[in-house]
Write a structure and sequence with these properties.
This protein is an alpha+beta fold and 841 residues long. It has 33 helices and 19 strands. It is found in: Cell membrane.
Length: 841
């Protein structure tokens, strides 16, 4: 223990000794908050308008408003997304409940929408700033006050995922995960330290030695509470229970080899797991069975299993000591017990066994197929399939990352010299979180905590090398008033100044320099075209007949939700599902829970399931329409009435869309252009439904009509049109068009008549969009041997009708039907289009 960390003689002295550090941590916390709220003008606008940062943040606000509308009941099943199946909400309840309680208190029981949105915007910044507290204490008990202060500074400015997810407007549960998991590790560490220092034994529990039990018990209970808070922020919180169990196994083995009692560890583990089990139990949904992603029996069984594990490991250790069994049998017995446990789980509950076996794959293994295209789910080292340190440096800085690796090596070496439980805990915790960022870079917001602590630990070791503790004591004994400071400065040695400079230059300045750019970014989402398109959708399409803020019961297993006849879906890529729901108040087929995507999971030989990827990559209109019809199993209903496409779907992310089918080859071809290899779209791409809709404006399609478009922006759409014109003889107008385009899937009016046998019949009209842009819609067919022809057209020439789509993109005049030397005008009513009526010419 460092000299400045020794217990002081009285409460008065203790307060006097600790208040400078408390004040320093408070200042660091306020600076951390300040950094996070600098971009407030880009998030909160006049009139209480808030632009949240991500689609999940918008969805959290959706669940928050439903919670406030029905308080204290929250939404668990939501039928207004993933139509026609609905989605179970895997978000933990705690994050929304904290915002709801804050809103109710500040709003005196009736908070306004403006207040709720403002609280939602600031909440992640506040939680991010509070994280300096547990980080300080972990650093303090690892290496003293100086390490704690340095760790707090490091996390206050830590860039990358941790900072971005705790910025104003990022109303998502990730920062709550970081805060509560760190508090959990802090209290668990304190419980271990306290219990070991007091030489706690299980006999103390039976003998009711409260003077020994009191402090470890309080810390262990708090650890259980914080683990529950973490788990109730994210169902996948079992990750940290796994970390503690791995640590415990190593600690039991080391203690057994050193012939030391591990009762302190067993007591801490049992109390922590018992408390967490009790607190999590009320939130379990029994009908979910064993699920990692929803609050199910899995979370109770794992917590109880961990508690039984601590009891068993402690019992076995005691038996080893009582019977004087050689220590090296202990790890072998643990291995055998673990294997037996898995065998029993497989026999008793195969679903639980499967979940336990495959759970690590969701965290530690690089994602394949469609999930590999999710940016936050890609490996931090292999984000593009090839090794790079770019994302590592962006998240931790180069010095911070390598300092964390060196810190882990030193902690590992310490286990062979003078081991401490808290050091082994930090080592195992850091190493396992390091493995998670190999699997998914999103977990960088966890590893930022470890980087901060380990970097500070390394800085603390440097200060110890230059005898900083001695200097600290000399200052305390010399400086009695400000006048003594100049004289005291003479005590500072050159190497101590250099050590501080090294810490500032290589640890503090890099994170500060990396954090500042985040304060200048524009965080508000969605981008304006999507907000405009969803706002238009809400006002100009029929009400689907759902109560937007109601709480609905989930359907029984195997049954569909009982939607009203007026319900319908909106097809788009999953990225935009929450915007369609929260801003448009309409029901997306796919959403950012990766629901409704369709496609294939593991093999090209699988059936290509109907969904967003299958529809957008469909090679013909007929196959695309078959997908829409297959999405809704009811024979008289299609899965979607509207389709929304943006320029990114048609260009930049189309490859990612196709990857979910496990068949993404052939959509591009590499050409050498101006001594540069470029990947350009091919015929296969231009035949897809996405290209037909966005690049070709739906020209020639029978049952799809554009009904609205937003303003045009400069995108790669222009390049794609140039490629089509140059390589495939197209005649597309080489301009950027509406960034977001909305289409309607209709039955289409059937134009019939007679011409000469086998004669080509053409029909066309000029479409005028709401942006004042015009494009040609045309279609052709060949009359049969008897001269009969039929053309199905999607546009009404007579305008919208009450109760249906109030489209603002439509023909500027009647259709022109032509064959041979004959040209006729054809007028089509909206009823004809919606009902699939026949129009005889």
């Amino acid at each position: 223990m460092n000299s400045q960390d020794r217990p002081v003689s009285s409460l008065k002295d203790k307060i006097k000794s600790s208040w400078p550090y408390t004040l320093t941590v408070a200042i660091i916390g306020f600076v951390s908050l300040w950094i996070r709220i600098i971009p407030s003008d880009n998030v909160i606008f006049p009139g209480g308008i808030v632009k949240f940062t991500t689609n999940d943040a918008w969805y959290h606000m959706r669940t928050l408003f439903v919670l406030l509308e029905n308080y204290p009941h929250r939404m668990f099943f939501n039928p207004m997304t993933n139509y026609p199946n609905g989605s179970y909400i895997h978000f933990g309840p705690l994050f929304d409940q904290m915002m709801a309680i804050t809103s109710l208190i500040l709003g005196m029981g009736n908070p306004s929408s403006q207040l709720v949105n403002t609280i939602g915007a600031y909440f992640p910044a506040v939680l991010g700033a509070l994280t300096v507290i547990p980080v300080y204490y972990i650093g303090k008990y690892l290496g003293g006050h100086k390490v704690g202060i340095l760790a707090a500074i490091m996390i206050a400015f830590a860039p990358g995922q941790f900072l971005s997810r705790s910025m104003i407007g990022f109303a998502d549960h990730h920062v709550a995960e970081s805060l509560f998991s760190t508090f959990f590790m802090m209290f668990f560490m304190l419980a271990l330290i306290s219990a070991k220092e007091k030489k706690l034994h299980f006999e103390d529990v039976f003998n009711k030695k409260f003077n020994v039990l009191k402090e470890p018990l309080i810390y262990s209970v708090m650890a259980g509470i914080m683990y529950s808070a973490y788990q109730l922020s994210w169902p996948g919180g079992s990750l940290f229970l796994f970390i503690v169990l791995v640590y415990a196994i190593f600690q039991y083995i080391l203690d057994n080899f050193r012939n030391e009692s591990s009762d302190y560890l067993g007591f801490t583990g049992v109390v922590t797991c018992l408390v967490s089990t009790i607190l999590i139990l009320p939130f379990v949904h029994p009908d979910m069975g064993f699920s990692l992603y929803y609050y199910s029996w899995f979370h109770v069984v794992t917590a109880l299993g961990a508690m039984v594990g601590f009891v068993a490991l402690s019992f076995i250790e005691r038996e080893f000591k009582r019977k004087k069994i050689k220590a090296y049998y202990y790890p072998f017995l643990i291995l055998v017990a673990g294997i037996l446990g898995l065998i029993i789980a497989k026999i008793v509950s195969p679903s639980l066994y499967s979940l336990i076996i495959h759970a690590p794959n969701t965290v530690f293994v690089i994602q394949q197929g469609g999930p590999s295209t999710i940016e936050e789910a890609s490996s931090i080292f292999l984000p593009y399939g090839t090794f790079t340190m770019e994302k590592v440096y962006l998240n931790f800085t180069a010095t911070g990352f390598f300092a964390s690796l060196l810190g882990m090596l030193i902690l590992a070496a310490n286990q062979f010299r003078k081991p401490k439980p808290e050091e082994l805990l930090v080592l195992v915790w850091s190493f396992l979180i390091f493995l998670t960022i190999y699997g998914q870079n999103r977990f960088a917001y966890y590893y930022s905590i470890n980087v901060s602590v380990l970097s500070a630990y390394l800085g603390g070791l440097l200060l110890e090398k230059v005898k900083w503790s001695e200097l600290d004591q000399k200052f305390k004994s010399t400086v009695k008033s400000p006048a003594d400071i100049p004289e005291a400065l003479k005590l500072v040695r050159v190497e101590q100044v250099l050590a501080v400079l090294l810490i500032v230059v290589f640890l503090i300045y890099p994170v500060y320099g990396s954090a500042i750019p985040y304060t200048k970014m524009v965080y508000g989402q969605p981008i304006q075209p999507w907000e405009d398109a969803c706002t238009w959708l809400r006002s100009n399409t029929p009400d689907p007949g759902m109560d937007y803020n109601a709480i609905y019961e989930a359907p029984k297993n195997g049954e569909l939700f009982n939607y009203p006849d007026t319900a319908y879906g909106v097809m788009s890529w999953w990225d935009y599902g929450h915007y369609i729901e929260t801003i448009g108040h309409r029901m997306p087929n796919a959403n950012p829970f990766q629901a409704g995507i369709g496609g294939r999971t593991s093999s090209i030989n699988e059936t290509n399931r109907p969904g967003a990827t299958t529809f957008l990559t469909a090679p013909s209109e007929e196959e695309a329409s078959a997908v829409l019809e297959a999405i809704d199993p009811r024979p008289d209903k299609a899965g979607a009435r509207y389709i929304m496409s943006d320029a990114r779907m048609a260009t930049d992310i189309f490859w990612s869309i196709a990857t979910w089918t496990l068949d993404n080859k052939g959509y591009t071809q590499v050409y050498l252009i101006d001594k540069e290899y470029r990947s350009l779209p091919t015929t296969r791409y231009f035949n897809t439904m996405e290209a037909k809709l966005h690049i070709f404006d739906g020209n020639g399609l029978k049952q799809y009509r554009m009904i609205h478009e937003t303003k045009a922006y400069q995108t790669n759409e222009l390049l794609y049109k140039q490629v089509y014109n140059y390589f495939y003889g197209g005649k597309l107008s080489e301009v950027d068009t509406g960034y977001v385009k909305t289409f309607e899937y209709v039955k289409g009016a059937n134009v019939t008549g007679t011409a000469s046998p086998n004669e080509t019949v053409n029909i066309n009209t000029t479409i005028l969009t709401n942006q004042g842009r015009t494009f040609e819609y045309s279609q052709s067919t060949t009359a049969d041997s008897q001269g009969k022809y039929e053309l199905t057209v999607p546009y009404s020439t007579e305008g919208p009708i009450v109760g249906e789509t109030q489209f603002d993109t439509a023909p500027s005049g009647p259709y022109l039907l032509s064959y041979g030397n004959t040209t006729k005008e054809v007028k089509v009513s909206e009823e004809d289009v919606l009902k699939g009526e026949e129009i005889k010419v």
